[in-house]
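#onboarding

Welcome to the new folks! Below is a worked example of what a typical request in this channel looks like: someone posts a single protein sequence, and someone else replies with the predicted structure as tokens. Don't worry about understanding the tokens yet, we'll cover that in week two.

Example request:
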Amino acid sequence: MAWSDVDRRYDLDDRYDRARVYEQVLAEGTAEDVRRFIHVDDVIDLWDDLWLPAAVELAWARWLLQHRGVTLAVRHPRAG
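Example response:
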């Protein structure tokens, strides 16, 4: 999946590639894309490697706290 580069391929076994895919899907994907491609445990595992828009980061941090009881560092604490 790559909206801007249709020839780009990602190796999801590679942590760096997986983080880039997660960034794209979380920031630009539809709700269906998120349901299809995102695994919550991977979001938690990759969290420190993800660079997300402030609103997306805050929304996921809040969701993870509420639904998983997981507190994650937020780089953009004033977003939202």
